[in-house]
Amino acid sequence: MTFIFKIFLYLAIVVGGLQSLHAQTPYTLEKVLKTTRLNNPILKSEHYNVAIAESDILSAELRPNLVLSNETIQIANSSDFENSTNWGHPKNREVLWQLSKTFQIMGQRQNKIEVAQKSAQLSQKEYTEIESAVLFEVAQKWNDVWTAQKQLELIKSAKDNIDSLVITNQHRFRNQVITQTDVFRTELLAKQYALQYATERQELANRKKELQFIMGIQDTIQIDTSEDLGRYGLTSLNELLQQSMEFRSDIQVAKSMIEVSESNIHLQKSMAYPQPEIGVIYNAQNKVPHFGFAASIDLPFFDRNQGEVKKSLIQRDQAEQQFHTLQTQLQTEITTAYESHRVQLQNIKNYQSVLEQSQTILDNIKYAYLRGGTSIVDFLEAQSSWLETQEQYNDVLEQYRQSHIQLLYVAGLINQLAQ
């Protein structure tokens, strides 16, 4: 029974471990972006601005309230009172009640609603632009984690290689095959790699914490270091330019700004017309009731909303100018990012032969050293050259991945990955 219990306990531990591994599914770029879009604290705060802007639509739809006014006029001198009356007698005062309402004419209410709706749409576009910047930042943080993890893996590989050589050299020294100096040099390099490994491990932990914060999560994460960014389709330059006009957030903001300014022009022109106030009157004079109608309207001899109309026209021209400027800026940014991405991709291809040569040199010199065909100095130089070449290759990979993320951002596609 004890044996069977141990078997079941072992299976439970294995299953639990597999479930834990499944829960720690590595984060791809797409998963990081989607998680950030849902959990980032900055985006949660900024999203309230959209709701605030939408509430302005409700305000614009409201109609003017009824206005109730009262005028009471009392006879001041008691000598003027009606015979046999005192100060509080109704015959010694005049009371007027008026109930009126302001009317919005010339489409003023509808224009207000349209401006509020366009402004709400603009607020949504502005939120998308903020979201795009946050997603770009988290993509860069994700790439930083990838770089730190690759560097840690590289140092670990070099450390493991030297650690095994330390054991071999200690055995060879005991057999009097090599000198003690060879052992000390190997052990010194192993200690240097151990220190560097500890530093890189802490660097990776720091980068992960930064990524977790901007993603808005608390759990420790693992990223997918084997992910090929090429699967996030980057097409030809012309197609990227077309896609950017459709998806890029600042372009959408600029278009929305033009729409808001056009609606505002209609509103300000309609506000040049006065809003009439019409109502009914009840007036009691000497206890005799009177009824009537009241109407008032501004006479637009001086103020015809000229200033706001002019401002709205200037704002429309400004929005159009900003849109044309962004179009030119967009073409420059995408062309630059596209060419940089092509160069970095070519650099990766060209570096493959350098990596192979570096690995071959290290393997050959290590083989020769272990058989006494060369000195420890030659091996240590080859090891240092190999590590430097690998680090340079990681730098090239980091630059390539950064250029890919940059191109996704300037083309406005990074938001699409988070959908």
From TrEMBL:
Taxonomic placement: Bacteria, Pseudomonadati, Bacteroidota, Flavobacteriia, Flavobacteriales
Name of the protein described by the UniProt record: TolC family protein
Domain of life assignment: Bacteria
Pfam families referenced in this protein's UniProt entry, alphabetically: OEP
GO MF assignments: efflux transmembrane transporter activity
Organism: Gelidibacter maritimus
Protein family: Belongs to the outer membrane factor (OMF) (TC 1.B.17) family.
InterPro entries in the cross-refs: MdtP/NodT-like, OMP_efflux
